[in-house]
Design brief:
With 387 residues, this protein is α/β, with parallel strands linked by helices. It has 12 helices and 14 strands. The N and C termini lie far apart (70 Å).
Length: 387
């Protein structure tokens, strides 16, 4: 009887131990750098929305740790972006994310590397940012949009077609996009051999800002236009191009029609038929995107953009890395874990980090079409896997 009682007591003790609640994990701080005002605010809002949505869907935790998300205003200059990063580092963040501007990304590069705190950038991604250890990017490298469209248009245009290339002068990322496009299309191809038309680089151009340059481009009688604009400048360029009488094809990296641009084009039909290349379309039919897009629309009454998706993925990447880093993660152990997470099940489709710490991912051709009473970017086909 005593033996039986002893065994029973031991069993009860084991059961009691097994049922002990797990030790609560300590809170962690994550810093998000994004524009909170000015021309970059729309992108900044999307970066914040995407990251926060992932937290909302995961009980406010990453890797099991409660998250204190600290948001700092990137502003619209390298100086303001640097100040935002410095302030977050002083607060002891485990990791950083966000960054809308490529100029800011360049400006903070050395600070991040010296601080040895991982940055999972969710927008800015210039191709010349190389040989980094603590900077990862969940968006895209800028030349890839040009490469994806160059490869497509090389075959889609007829032998007698001509394409005008119109871009803002000295635009950050413009050289990357143009280089990628020409490399894939064929630099000596007579269909794009004409000189590039450069326009003002004003982020908020007036109603006549592009007229003279558009007239120069159309004097060559092109059948299609390849361009590179975003935000308010994109809406103005589209409207002024149509006002000049151009009814041919318009092709561009996806930022031309992403975010609030389509809401700003008047008449709305001016944007119909525009085709863009991007790593995401809100109508992609996969389980991860159905969950993400549905939750985003429910919370914000709008379709998600590539900016929100990349920030959502940045949170997912951090979630997995922090979990892999163990009970007491440090910036250095999280950074090491980022290299071990493998394939990401993303709303854009599965992707993974390559050696330069950027995504190897699919690119999609999208077309502006009617979606009920509004215009939307609808996925037409896959273009390529790049990265």
């Amino acid at each position: 009887m005593l033996a039986a009682l002893g065994a029973g007591g031991l069993a009860a003790g084991c059961a009691s131990d097994a049922e002990e609640p797990a030790k609560p994990k300590s809170p962690v701080k994550v810093g998000l750098v994004a524009p909170q005002s000015g021309v970059g605010k729309a992108v900044g809002d999307e970066l914040r929305n995407g990251f926060q949505l992932y937290l909302d869907l995961n009980e406010g935790r990453l890797g099991g740790h409660p998250v204190n998300l600290l948001v700092a205003d990137e502003g619209d200059t390298v100086k303001s972006g640097q100040a935002a990063v410095d302030g977050l580092l002083k607060q002891g963040v485990l990791a950083l994310t966000g960054v809308a501007s490529s100029a800011v990304m360049f400006g903070i590069r050395d600070t991040i590397e010296q601080a040895r705190v991982p940055l999972i950038g969710s927008n800015a991604s210039p191709s010349s940012l190389q040989s980094v250890v603590y900077i990862w990017r969940t968006s895209y490298v800028l030349d890839e949009a040009g490469r994806a469209l160059g490869r497509y248009l090389r075959d889609a245009l007829g032998p007698d077609d001509r394409m005008a290339i119109v871009m803002p002068e000295s635009a950050v990322g413009g050289d990357d996009v143009l280089l990628g496009f020409r490399q894939e299309f064929g630099e000596s191809d007579p269909r794009i051999a004409d000189q590039v038309i450069f326009t003002t680089n004003n982020a908020n151009p007036g109603k006549g800002a592009f007229v003279r340059d558009i007239d120069r481009a159309l004097s060559r009688n092109p059948s299609a236009v390849f361009c590179f604009y975003s935000g308010p400048a994109a809406a103005e360029f589209i409207m002024q191009l149509r006002d000049a009488g151009f009814q041919g094809g318009i092709y561009a990296p996806g930022f031309l029609t992403e975010g609030t641009v389509l809401e700003s084009v008047r008449p709305a039909n001016d944007a119909l038929g525009i085709r863009t290349a991007l790593n995401y379309s809100a109508d992609l039919n996969n389980a991860a995107n159905r969950r993400f897009a549905s939750a985003y629309r429910k919370k914000h009454s709008a379709s998600p953009t590539t900016y929100a998706m990349a920030s959502y993925d940045a949170a997912k990447v951090l979630d997995q890395a922090i979990r892999l880093a163990g009970e007491d993660p440090t910036p250095q152990t999280v950074n090491l874990a980022l290299g071990r997470i493998g394939q990401i099940d993303s709303p854009r489709g599965a992707w993974q980090f390559n050696q330069p710490r950027t995504p190897q991912q699919k690119w999609y051709l999208r077309e502006v079409q009617h979606d009920g009473q509004v215009l939307s970017n609808v996925m037409v086909s896959e273009l390529a896997t790049l990265g």
